[in-house]
Amino acid sequence: MNTQALNINSSMNNCYIEIKVCMGTSGRASGGNDVLRAFKQYIQESGIEALIGRRCRYKKVGCRGFCSKDVLVDVIINGNKVTYQSVKPIMVERIVQEHIVNGTPVNEWLTKEDYESFHTKQHKIVLGPCGEIDPENIDDYLNMNGYKAARKAITQMSQDDVIKKVIMSGLRGRGGSGFLTGKKWEICKAQKETPKYIICNVGEVNRPLAEGNPHAIIEGLLIGGYAIGAQKGYIYIRERYHLSVERLRNAISQARDKGFIGKNIFDSDFNFDIEFSFGTEAFICGEETALMESIEGKRAMPRFRPPFPAQKGLWGKPTVINNAETLSNIPIIIGKGAKWFASIGTEESKGTKVFTLSGKVKNIGLVEIPMGMSLRDIVYGIGGGIAGNKALKAVQVGGPSGGLIPLSMIDMGLDYESLAKVGSIVGSGGMVVFDEDDCIVSVTKFFIEFLQRESCGKCTPCRIGTKRMLELLTKITDGRGEDSDLITLERLSSLMTSSSLCGLGRTAPNPFITSLSHFRDEYIAHIRDKKCPAGVCTALITFTIMEELCKGCTLCKKVCPAGAITGELKKPHKIDQNICIKCGACFKACKFKAIKKG
């Protein structure tokens, strides 16, 4: 036992200490379990625990979005909170001794301005509790009014009243086309056939919600089930999302023990239960009819519509499908009111939206913004600007089938209508930032390659269209492109958009359509000049040594894996273009900037 700590801390008898350790997927991967264990062990061994007993609480919390700073740790003493970043077990002793024992935070390990601006510029509604409450403890959720909205809906409101409130809120689906959630519920509730089902799709972007606040998803499912008259709910999730599955299972078990799931919920005649359905790794499963096929044990392929799922869905019965973010908003709308929710966002796009901010931005992470917030405020405010102080080139919004938005449109607001006007979508909330070093043609090819691979192949426009688009884009990046290829790509895009069976095929051309619209000059450079302006497309790159700058140090010669560089010590070297494999090793190794990339 550390007696010095005990002597110093005779005044700690009235202290209440809480230590929150980020234990989302990123936090655990960064060593969150070891950090939490180190705090418990050291506080016990130092004698602090003996002094304050139950007034020291350790809490596992979900992801806070700024994953590059994990492991994040809050140390709260008598309500005064400070947050440490990039915490390792070896740092724990000093934090305990200097901060908890002596009352002086370790300033060099505290979060910096970028962490504060990343969070303060957001509007967190569904992400708010993540990183604050213990997702494995239902009491934490109950202490923030958890399940009160469900109780209110089931015991004080009719089904129509619930649906009306959701319609009034303006909540639109957060996982796809943005159809009004309440309208979808209204259509399903109006169907005479029973039983009815409600499905929660937990996609990639939704994992932090499932890991950080799983009870909100369950409560949303419960309210939705009551509103449409369903007694069975499904959580559709990939089995490899281990932590999400673990915490959702635990939350369902706790909710069942409390009587929030099962028979006669809240002493009413409403019965509701939830079952897991584990999905495949296919991107197409984000399409709701393909998702239902997967639940039914069939190959995940879209169905023809109409009828729509709300009319004839799972096993031919009326079904509502919402993603986890959409359902997490429901308890908030019932609890705080439709007008409160509708006051956030724009006239047509209400509330907030969660996006994954990634790419060439300084602050990468999961963000929640009010609908209508400008790209500038997101990239340069929340994101902190472009990494390496490079110039912004474009932002891809809406996932692989979203559109590329150029720098000239950086002041546009992000909402359903504005994005649709520029050929993009909100989608599930992907956002990738590209800088001056990125080749837009190569980026477009990358997205089309992904979509071609993920096409289920059921309909010809998507199956053949994505394949032909990829072939033509590969031809262009390989330096074999022709002007006619752009005409063919535009025709393909039009055909796919108008005739594909599902949203994947209809939106797959978006990356090409938007990139050609805003970056046609790059396509022309690839096709006519046989040059890649960004120096990315290998087939169009040439490395040459400028004799007047070459010092003959031989470093480039040593790193060349193909033996394409010749020359004597202290004399200018040369690159044999017939042998050069264009790997760029010489370009990176040269200390005198004597190698030109063009």
Q: Can you walk through the features of this model?
A:
Residues 1-8 have low confidence and may be disordered. Strands 10-9-13-11-12 form a five-stranded mixed β-sheet. Strands 2-1-3-4 form a four-stranded mixed β-sheet. The protein contains 26 helices and 17 strands.
| Main pleated sheet | 5 strands, mixed
| Poorly predicted ranges | 1-8
Specify the helix fraction band: 40-55%
| Count of structural domains | 5
Q: Distance N terminus to C terminus? A: 66 Å
Strand content: 5-15%
Overall geometry: globular
CATH architectural name of the largest domain = 3-Layer(aba) Sandwich
Characteristic terms for this protein:
26 helices, five-stranded mixed beta sheet, 5 domains, 41% helix, 15% strand, iron, Nuo51_FMN-bd, globular, 4 iron, 4 sulfur cluster binding, Rossmann fold, Ubiquitin-like (UB roll), 17 strands, NADH dehydrogenase (ubiquinone) activity, single chain, Glutaredoxin, 598 residues, alpha/beta, four-stranded mixed beta sheet
